[in-house]
């Protein structure tokens, strides 16, 4: 098990991480999400031993992971870290980068493993190409293969698909996370993108201003977001007083409603003036105004600006949200 034990950290005087306590069982996939600057990369660097913490400890089973004040060369043999700058060797070939950390004394094993990884990242045809001739996305894939080469027990991935086009991203995510699950690798992925974690993470940790504000399964977090910050990580969301949509509800509670959960209806207490429509492919996202506040909802067609529409929410959505949301 990986244990981040009540860690506090600051680069200068301002705290960047405060009282981070996280236990990750062997083989579990954890996604760390949160807005830019909330401390995701810093947390991964601490786990890898690149930064010296102010307070707290990090353990892998019974071994303490020591920071740079104790380890001249950071990093542990069982752990790999894929940072946002890929740290590849620009003038050498793809295959040489992938096999960089493999033993040259076992040439057959090195060759087989390199081929296997090139297949996973779908760059077999580029084996002999120099890194400097690759696109940013291709370089990121090589960097990914390189950290996998030595079969780490713990893998720390910082925005692993940020440079990769959507065309490849989906198959790469499936290949990679499927492979890591099968090999029982413990994985911590820092990401902004809910597509990286909804289908793949066992647990999602939400960071805000350097603190863990939620930790749950992706499904629970998505279905019961406890505030707009968490809901906003999954898409456009609104906070609505429940009694305006269901007049019989004698409550002033407000619930979170995702844009896709609204339906335009004949009549409801929620009358919205349309501001503009944004084409999203399969639907439009409409920005409207209710009592001076923006409200976002999906609709199958664009709507004329200044048009008035009524919005409704299914009773199932209301019940789902009311079960868990505190007042306010
Ligand atoms: N080397 C550094 N020196 C000083 N402050 C830093 C340094 N690196 C990061 N910070 C600050 O620490 C905070 C957390 O940064 P961090 O990179 O961990 O956030 P993040 O959540 O990974 O952001 P992003 O999603 O944009 O990569 C930010 O306020 C950032 O400005």
TrEMBL record:
<dbReference type="Pfam" id="PF00005">
    <property type="entry name" value="ABC_tran"/>
</dbReference>
<dbReference type="InterPro" id="IPR003439">
    <property type="entry name" value="ABC_transporter-like_ATP-bd"/>
</dbReference>
<dbReference type="GO" id="GO:0005524">
    <property type="term" value="F:ATP binding"/>
</dbReference>
<keyword id="KW-0813">Transport</keyword>
<dbReference type="InterPro" id="IPR003593">
    <property type="entry name" value="AAA+_ATPase"/>
</dbReference>
<protein>
    <submittedName>
        <fullName>ABC transporter ATP-binding protein</fullName>
    </submittedName>
</protein>
<keyword id="KW-0547">Nucleotide-binding</keyword>
<dbReference type="InterPro" id="IPR027417">
    <property type="entry name" value="P-loop_NTPase"/>
</dbReference>
<dbReference type="InterPro" id="IPR050093">
    <property type="entry name" value="ABC_SmlMolc_Importer"/>
</dbReference>
<dbReference type="InterPro" id="IPR017871">
    <property type="entry name" value="ABC_transporter-like_CS"/>
</dbReference>
<feature type="domain" description="ABC transporter">
    <location>
        <begin position="2"/>
        <end position="234"/>
    </location>
</feature>
<keyword id="KW-0067">ATP-binding</keyword>
